[in-house]
Amino acid sequence: MDIKLSEEQQQLIDSAAKFMDKYCTPAFIRKMEKESKLGYDPQMWREFADMGWLGIHVPEEHGGLGMSVLDLVLLTREFGRHICPSPFLSTAVTAADVIARAGTAKQKEELLAEIVGGEKVYAFAFQEYSRRFHPSHIKLTAKADGDNFVLNGTKMFVEFAEAADTLLVVARTSAGDAGPKNTKGLTMFLVDRKSAGIDIKHMPTMARDRHYEIKFNNVKVPKANVLGKVDNAWADLEPTILKSAVAFSAYTNGAGFEMHAHATQYAKDRVQFGRPIGQMQVIQMYLAQLIMELYGADTLTLFTAFNMDKGRHVRGYVGKMKAFSAETVGRVMDIGSQIFGGMGYMEEQDTTLYLRRGKQYQLSFGGTEYWEEVIAEEIIDREPVVLS
Q: pTM for the whole thing?
């Protein structure tokens, strides 16, 4: 793997960093937390579209840039440095990728153009009451009824649901196979958020972002809104989840790097007992350990993206990457705050914006336990995959 970035990739990083430095300030983040019902800025979203970012991974034949997964993670890492609040992951990554993969010709033509143009926002409704991320835990039902399916059940932790135009809902249309690893019997639906029978309730989180509980009570969805194959959604959805996990890991790595930079600067500036605290061995040890882990997580993320672009089997590597990045960001936010002492836990301190999100990032897109199960399955059930 050649880790030297191309000129175009460096330009992508530079333009994203410049944009984020200008718009996505700590004051902006706090404004989104306290004042925005949507949880993101529609004007910023339009500028994302103007920059071409919403189509970064959409095929060129559908109006996107058709860029690589590696390009995608370089962009989301810069978003993460500024903990940018936007439905980019659920819309421009998860929804766009699975529509491009499983959609009909008509769905691709119409829906991908709307995503690229910034006209529609998607929310991904997958997880339910179980803390486990495995498809066998999906209980929300979809029953065929004439020209429609009727959805009943509850989805939890649906980010940006209130702001979304369309919900990408994974529902159970049949029992599937017996056993704890059942991946059959699931179907994806594109559901209008304003459909009759949908009740959306905000779920306050420590991170103060926009997660919601959605209850479906006899919600009718036209059969034309089925995405992919009935009863076999996981075959199309899992590759998209793997790709989304790569993009999200890059985001968390970026947040970790920014927190480490804040802690490092504070260690240089804060004088205690006649010298900067950065001269104390314990502070040096913390900063050294954290940056090693961050570069490890970042390198594993770039490596996984590179091999995903090559079309190689990377499920096990995605598991390793996601679990390691999640645990790393949790440690960085925790220990980075400790370097600030008591100040690190005060609301006025900008780093608390990162601290509050650290634990949530560990759990998003499947917690470490789920991805460790994926790693174990790849080790035990398959011949070892060695990439280079």
A: 0.94
Q: Name the DSSP letter for residue 340.
A: T
Rounded-to-integer distance, Cα 269 and Cα 338, Å: 15
- Alpha-carbon distance of 168 to 162, in angstroms, equals 13
pLDDT in tens, 196-239: 999 999 988 888 888 999 999 999 999 999 999 999 999 999 99
Residues 331 and 368: beta-carbon distance below 8 Å: no
Alpha-carbon span 74 to 25, nearest angstrom: 20
Contact 40, 48 (CB under 8 A): no
Q: Rounded to an integer, what distance in angstroms lies between the CA atom of residue 150 and that of residue 219? A: 5
When pLDDT is cut at 50, 70 and 90, the band that residue 388 belongs to is low
Banded model confidence at residue 178, pLDDT cuts 50, 70, 90: low
Are 171 and 124 in contact by the 8 Å Cβ rule? The answer is no
Calculate the CA 305 to chain-centre distance. 15
315, with CB counted inside 10 A (0-12, 13-18, 19+), is middle
Q: What is the DSSP letter of 312?
A: -
In 10 A of CB 60, how many CB atoms? 10
E-strand ranges in 116-274 read 122-125, 141-145, 148-159, 166-172, 186-192, 198-203, 211-222, 226-227, 271-272
pLDDT tens digit sequence for 302-325: 999 999 999 999 999 999 999 999
Q: Residue 217's pLDDT is what?
A: 98
Please give the helix or strand (H or E) that residue 234 lies within, else none.
helix 233-269
Cα angle 180, 181, 186; round to 5? 110
Helix (H, G, I), strand (E, B) or coil at 198: strand
